[in-house]
Write a structure and sequence with these properties.
β11 and β12 form a beta hairpin. The protein starts with 16 loop residues before the first strand and ends with a strand. By secondary structure, the protein is α+β, with helices and mostly antiparallel strands. 45% of the residues are buried. Strands 1, 4, 5, 6, 7, 8, 9 and 14 form an eight-stranded mixed β-sheet that branches. Strands 11-12-10-13 form a four-stranded antiparallel β-sheet. α2 packs across α3 and α5 runs antiparallel to α6. The protein binds ligand DP6. Ligand DP6 binds next to α4.
């Protein structure tokens, strides 16, 4: 099994205590991951832009446990803090993550951990922090592993970090490198794999450099459907096979589009992907509508603006009501004005986040 290369039996160096910190970005999928099998394997390949401003910073403080004093031998020992405050509600997810990755990180039970995390975007913004959060934590753990095994290569480091992040949250494996990442086997993309994200390997036209993503915060509440429940609904979905085929074809179509800089084709694929994702949720059993009236209003305004001005602005959606407005760097001025005068009014408290494509995670 290819993942066996991430299993370690022993380390050369001893580690007793320390602290590591990483910043990892959020990402926005252009071809969506929706549907998984086995241990966090995607049913289709996806591709994303890595974001620059939306990120999570995580510090991991670790200390070797004293088993003579420690009564809880068999469990993991960790505490999670968000913005300096203990956040017990995050701990079950981390517990599950540790359970899944323990076979690949055999030192996990030997340490007591303090995980301190903060997001650049408000926690209540409805933006998923699981991708950037799991990526930042996976990078911290790999940083520890590298201290215990200094001869691991940079390539191994990043691949295993992405592999681990995937076990925390699928889309997190696309949140390490930039500017574009592919996750999932695709016949036309050499090196693509279900196990971890890899940098998009082909030419990208300058039209797509520094692509802009303004995130309109339409609904800031708790997610109506968790992504895990959503993915599971694809297991016996009547249109699942067609959807996975469509995603594969859309990724094939994007390859020449990125090469030639054809933004109008890009728009067709990206908007269709967003609506297909939501169509899957509307046609599953049980069914959900995750868009809000304001989501639709924004989409209609974008279409009208495009028709009237010839702009290349378009939208994509995640599994929620917020709208990501995508546009080329050359249109920053016109689109910013459009957002402020026409779209902002449809956001909760007029809030939006200005972001663009970034280059990936960094050690702090
Ligand atoms: C709609 O990565 O959040 O954002 O693997 O269950 O943690 P889990 O799911 P998650 O799913 C994200 C789905 C999406 C599309 C995408 O990012 O590709």
């Amino acid at each position: 099994m290819p993942q066996h290369r991430f299993i370690v039996c022993s380390y050369t160096q001893n580690l007793t205590s320390g602290k590591v910190s990483w910043q990892a970005p959020s990402n926005i999928a252009l071809v969506k991951y929706w549907g998984k099998y086995g241990e966090q394997m995607p049913m289709n390949a996806s591709v994303s832009f890595t974001l620059k401003n939306c990120n999570t910073k995580t510090s991991l403080t670790f200390e070797k446990r004293n088993f003579a004093k420690d009564s809880n031998h068999n469990g993991f020992d960790f505490e999670v803090f968000l913005d300096g405050k203990r956040e017990v509600s995050f701990e079950p997810k981390i517990q599950k993550f540790f359970e899944r990755v323990e076979v690949y990180l055999p030192f996990l039970k030997d340490f007591k951990f303090k995980i301190e995390t903060s997001n650049s975007f408000p926690h209540s913004s409805g933006i998923a922090s699981s991708a950037s959060g799991m990526s930042a934590l996976a990078l911290c753990l790999m940083d520890m592993e590298r201290q215990m095994q200094p001869d691991i290569t940079e390539e191994y480091f990043i691949e295993k970090a992405s592999f681990l992040a995937r076990l925390g949250s699928g889309s997190a494996c696309r949140s390490l490198q930039g500017p574009m990442v592919v996750w999932g086997e695709h016949p036309e993309i050499d090196g693509s794999t279900n196990l971890f994200g890899t940098k998009y390997p082909f030419a990208v036209h300058k039209n797509f450099h520094n692509y802009q993503d303004t995130i309109l915060l339409v609904d800031k509440g708790e997610k109506q459907v968790s992504s895990t429940v959503g993915h599971d609904l694809m297991l016996d979905h009547p249109f699942a096979e067609q959807r996975f085929r469509q995603a594969k074809e859309n990724l094939s179509k994007l390859i020449p589009v990125f090469k030639n800089g054809n933004i109008s084709e890009f728009i067709k694929i990206v908007e269709s992907e967003a609506l297909s994702l939501h169509a899957m949720m509307m046609t599953s059993m049980p069914y959900f509508i995750l868009m809000k009236p304001n989501t639709l209003e924004i989409i209609n305004r974008i279409w009208k603006f495009r028709e009237k001005t010839g702009s290349n602005v378009c939208f994509t959606l995640d599994a929620g009501a917020n709208v990501h407005i995508l546009y080329p760097q050359a249109e920053i001025e016109a689109v910013s004005k459009f957002i402020k005068t026409e779209l902002k009014q449809f956001c909760k408290n007029s809030e939006f986040i200005t972001d663009w494509v970034g280059l990936g995670a960094k050690k702090l």
